[in-house]
Write a structure and sequence with these properties.
293 residues; alpha/beta; binds coenzyme A; binds magnesium ion
Length: 293
């Protein structure tokens, strides 16, 4: 399990912001070569990333490089850079169908990229949403490296005409389709960015909504959004206490051979145990990060 509560995007042209990411408390950083970088500055962005990776040791913060469409001229150069820098993952934009992932899996295998280099997919087109389950299933193909979906609502709104509205009413069915697809095939899902980075109140509500929908974390555009994402996507104290109680209850030898037990007037099932163990594991990872600081 990796912590992916706060996944901060940073345009690779912005050296000051790049350097800043190292000291920020986000779980992961997406170094963007795609839409936040103007066409005439793509080469400069790649050189910035090369220098940044050379100068900055890896730490307990996943590093993801978002490339341009891998078959495009920019994308080919970006993939060369990914192979040279060996980040934790390459993030593919505008994934429409399983083949978009599998052709990159093949490219990485041909180049003998280390197994640790995973593939993340932006789900941000109408076809990407319609094919979310088939794309997630591609993660079952041996050697596919698929690990995580990131929803991109800016592109999706542009392609569909859905307006940005409080509560994201008309987008929720599509967001839930993405969550269902990742759960069916054992991937993670990161919710879309929220553009108005000075509006802490609406951002807070959107994090709470994403957490309730089952997302693992949120893609961020600004350091001011990190604290709220870390808070919302972490298990709270009462959830941890409850999970520990479930683990303790099933550790009692008297529950051997029982799949359901009475815990203070509430039924708990052995299936809750797996969930409880993963929640406690996540809480320990978070506590470990806080002590390491
Ligand atoms: N990562 C790291 N640091 C960031 C950052 C980011 N994404 N966004 C802003 N910062 C830093 C700034 O460099 C600035 O640092 P400084 O005080 O040391 O100079 C500080 O945070 C405050 O920034 P602020 O002045 O509030 O914003 P800005 O005008 O510099 O930047 C944006 C605003 C939106 C241009 C910028 O946040 C950004 O580029 N975000 C990411 C966009 C992106 O990746 N888009 C693609 C995915 S949708
Ligand atoms: Mg996009």
């Amino acid at each position: 399990m990796s912590l992916r509560r706060s996944v901060l995007s940073v345009p690779a042209v912005n050296i000051r912001a790049l350097e800043k990411t190292y000291s920020l408390d986000c779980d992961a950083v997406i170094f963007d070569l795609e839409d936040s970088v103007a066409p005439e500055r793509k080469a400069e962005a790649r050189e910035n990333l090369r220098a940044f990776f050379a100068a900055t040791p890896a730490k307990d913060q996943e590093r993801i490089i978002r490339v341009n469409a891998p078959a495009s001229t920019f994308g080919k150069a970006d993939m060369e850079l990914v192979l040279a820098l060996e980040p934790d993952a390459v993030l593919l934009p505008k994934v429409d169908e399983p083949q978009d992932v599998l052709s990159v899996s093949d490219r990485l295998a041909d180049a003998d990229a280390p197994e640790s280099l995973r593939i993340w997919a932006m789900i941000e087109t109408p076809r990407g949403i319609l094919n979310a389950a088939a794309i997630a299933e591609a993660g079952r193909t041996p050697g596919s490296r698929l690990d995580c979906f990131v929803v991109g609502l800016n592109d999706l709104r542009k392609e569909t005409g859905v307006l940005p509205q409080p509560g994201r009413t008309y987008l929720v069915p599509w967001l839930m389709q993405v969550v269902l697809a990742v759960r069916a095939y054992g991937l993670d899902a990161i919710d879309s960015v929220f553009n108005d980075f000075r509006d802490a109140e609406v951002f807070d509500a959107e994090c709470a909504q994403a957490r309730a929908m089952g997302f693992d974390g949120k893609m961020l555009i600004h350091p001011a959004q990190i604290e709220a994402a870390n808070r919302h996507f972490a298990p709270d104290a009462s959830a941890i206490a409850e999970a520990e109680a479930i683990i303790a209850a099933f550790a009692d030898p008297e529950t051997d051979g029982l799949n359901v037990i009475n815990s203070n007037g509430r039924m708990i099932e052995r299936l809750h145990l797996v969930q409880a163990e993963s929640l406690v594991h996540k809480a320990r990872l978070i506590a470990g990060r806080q002590t390491a600081k």
